[in-house]
Each structure stands twice: as structure tokens, then as C-alpha cells.
Amino acid sequence: MTEPLHPSTLGEILDRTFQIYRAKFLLFIGIAALPTLVMLGVHLADITWLHLGSLVHPFRQPGIALWSFFVSLGFYHVSSFLHLLILPALVYLTSNLSLGEGGSIQKAIRFAAAGWRRYLWIAILKLSAILVIPEILAAGLIAGAAFAGDRAGVFNGNRSEFFAVLMAASAIIAGGALFLWLGSCFSLAVPACALEGIAGYRAMRRSWVLTKGSRLRILFTFLTIAIFSWFLMYGLQLVCRWIYILLFRMHFFGTTAQHLYPEAIYLMYAMVAAMVGAIYPIAITLFYYDQRIRLEGYDIERMMEAAGLNAPGITLSVESPIAPGEPQEGQA
């Protein structure tokens, strides 16, 4: 699995990502499945007891669509937070494999659990930066545009709903663009936190510095994986819908198929999420090392350490992981 460290092109990083993923396919799926199983339980609880989509009953179609959007956004927040919590384990496993060291699910989980306070804090900071800030901006744009439109009288005519939808869509697009840009800027915060033993705002600033010059590459990688995942989920959903329609036409299975369809869809989503959930974490770990090579000469540092020309730095080991707040070797 070890390759000489050198600055890599985007194509080389993506190719290396899938090489590492294929080599330890079951290990990565086993870790990535943890947050997806929790989210599957949340969705099944919603279907069975909570019924969040039915808590509000708008009288008009735009209100129904808006409430469904907010419910989906809430689920996305929970899912993102859970995936951020397990991300250090994926980063640790990818780092070990890319540097020629072994790895297992147990060691990766133990590594993440050892620094859970640090990773919990960085997950809160990152979620706030890339999700909450764009949402506040989008809400502010909608409120400002609604106030200006009301003062201008654009909502008094027959096209008031059109203008309302247009303003909401424009604000969502602006918020989405900010989400993508901030996501690329802070994409290396968790790798920096996990592999360098830094935490909190220091890890966020570290990511901001390290991503300079490669944010478009990181953004392209994220969008490529996201679009691939969406097409895979949509294709499987079409297959599931075809099977559902076939069973529904059969008198004996009709009622059963109707009740099991939502559960089947969420189970399918969980399977796809577990399959592709580790791909982006592998990629950003490789981007982390690539940026350190480009900006800090990390490849030369590794060669000097291997030759014994300088004092060895800290070694990531699950047997003695860096505890939150513990000084690194050589520090006071």
C-alpha cells in the first residue's frame, strides 16, 4: 500500500483513494456503517412514532414543500454530526494504510474514542461553520428580500407566490454556494486534529491554511462523490419502486408492500451510505498529506526521519494515542 511521497495531481489522489478503498473494503464499510445505522434507527423511529413530516399541516402546497425541506435539513444536520464523530477513525485508518502501516476496525475506533472530547468539539465547530452560518445567511437574505418586496408591493399581485419562491430559491443557492466554499476551506480540520493532536479553533485555522491552493480540487472531489452517491441512490430507488409496484399489484402482497416501502427505501439509503461513506474521508486524508508535502516539505521530513537524520516525531499508535490536552513529545 506504500507509495513514495510526492505532490500528487487530482487524478492521482482519486486513483489512490479508490486503491486504498478497494484494498480494505470491508474495514471501511464497517466503520462507515456505524453512523448510517444510527440514522436508519432515527428514520425508522420517525416513521413509526414521531411523524415529523406531519407535525405541521400547511394549507397550501408551498408550505408543505417548505416544511418537508426543513425536516430533511434537520435530518441532514444529525447525519452530518454523526459522520463527523466517526471521521477520525476513517482518517486514522487511511493514514496508516497510506504510510504502509496496518489497521483494523478495533484500533480505529479506539483511536477515535481516546480523543472523543477533542473530536466532539471540532465536530461542533465544523458543523456550525459550514452549515449554521450559511443557513443564517440564507434566512437573513430571505427576510431582507421579503421585507423589501413587501415595501415595494411585489406580493400584492397574482404572481406573489412566484416571487416568494424565487427569493427563497435565490437565498438557498447563495447559502449552498457558501456551504460548499466553507466546506472546502475547513475540510482538513479533522485530519489535522486527528493526526497532529491539535484541537478546536487551532485545527480550523490549520485547515484554512493547508487548503489554500487546493480548495477547488477538494470541492470538485466532494461534488463528484456526492453526485455519484445521488445517482446510485436514485437508481436503486427506481428499482425499489418498480418492485413495490409489482408487489402492490398482487392482492396478497399489496398491503404488506405499502407498509414496508418507506422502511425499504431508508434501508437502501443506509446501505448506499455505508458503501460510499468512507470514500471522501479517504480522499481528504490524502489531500491533507499532499498539502503538507506541497507547503511544508513533509516528504523530505519523512525521508529524514527514515534515515535517522533527526529526532523522530510523534508516532500515531492506538496503544498510546494522544489524549486531549496531552503535550506532544518534545514539548514542555
Tell me what the structure shows:
This protein is mainly α and 332 residues long. Helix 6 packs across helix 9 (215-248). The protein has one domain (10-306). The two termini are 36 Å apart. It has helices at residues 10-23, 25-50, 61-98, 105-114, 116-152, 160-185, 189-196, 200-210, 215-248, 254-276, 279-296, 298-306.
Helix and strand layout, with pairings?
Blueprint: H1 10-23, H2 25-50, H3 61-98, H4 105-114, H5 116-152, H6 160-185, H7 189-196, H8 200-210, H9 215-248, H10 254-276, H11 279-296, H12 298-306
Helix pairs in contact: 1-11, 2-3, 2-10, 3-4, 3-5, 3-7, 3-11, 5-6, 5-7, 5-8, 6-9, 7-8, 9-10, 9-11
Distance between the termini: 36 Å
CA radius of gyration is 23 Å
Categorize the overall geometry. globular
Largest sheet entry: none
Give the tally of β-strands. 0
Q: Total helix count?
A: 12
- Low-confidence stretches are 311-332
Name the average pLDDT.
83
**SS-based class:** mainly alpha
Briefly say what this structure is.
The protein has one domain (10-306). Helix content is 77%, strand content 0%.
Characteristic terms for this protein:
mainly alpha; disordered C terminus
